[in-house]
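Query structure, 219 tokens:
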């Protein structure tokens, strides 16, 4: 299949949480269509999401924001506090700044809208599984002004050429392994560069660094 040829024979295992059964069914169909992704667990609320993650140990978690009981953000906050937490993305129809800003504080690695193109959703899941960060451009455009206004860190003038190259990789959503392969570096070396960049940028995580870099036109 096309998806398998592009991404390899082993599908990414996903737990998907959404309180609307029809939406879950539609998203499952989209995600699994090419064979690159397999939805191993589904949940209709935050409590069921946490149980599904414990039961299936997925590679990636996709969670809606507004769900009954324990909502998506509350569940993701619990997950992100775990040492072995899988990469997670907020998947929602609500491109509201407050939700995204809170998810960013939690340390979520992805921000996606449910009406994204099917290929974009599948690609985002694969990128998350590889350790990258994924940002729907529409969310990025809305969040950048808020992030810039709330950040005390201007664009650093003292970045080395290599640091700029690594930062461009972060802005593109690349994983450490992807950046290492493209630049001909060891993955451990890239990890050190990323840590140094986060400190220089005043960013809490690679998603914040990616947003800042995109705002500076480095993507």
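Result returned for the query:
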């Amino acid at each position: 299949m096309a998806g398998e040829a592009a991404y390899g024979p082993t599908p990414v295992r996903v737990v998907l949480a959404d309180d609307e059964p029809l939406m879950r069914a539609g998203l499952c169909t989209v995600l699994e269509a090419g064979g690159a992704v397999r939805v191993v667990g589904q949940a209709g609320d935050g409590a069921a999401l946490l149980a599904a993650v414990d039961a299936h140990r997925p590679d990636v978690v996709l969670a809606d924001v507004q769900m009954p009981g324990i909502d998506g953000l509350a569940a993701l906050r619990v997950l992100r506090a775990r040492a072995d937490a899988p990469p997670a993305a907020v998947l929602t129809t609500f491109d509201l700044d407050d939700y995204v800003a809170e998810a960013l504080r939690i340390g979520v690695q992805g921000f996606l809208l449910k009406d994204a193109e099917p290929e974009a959703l599948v690609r985002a899941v694969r990128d998350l599984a590889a350790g990258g960060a994924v940002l729907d451009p529409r969310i990025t455009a809305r969040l950048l002004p808020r992030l810039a206004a709330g950040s005390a860190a201007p664009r650093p003038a003292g970045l080395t050429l290599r640091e700029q190259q690594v930062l461009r990789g972060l802005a593109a959503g690349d994983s450490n392994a992807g950046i290492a392969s493209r630049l001909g570096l060891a993955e451990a070396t890239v990890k050190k560069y990323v840590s140094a960049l986060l400190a220089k940028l005043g960013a809490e995580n690679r998603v914040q660094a990616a947003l800042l870099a995109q705002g500076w036109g480095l993507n």
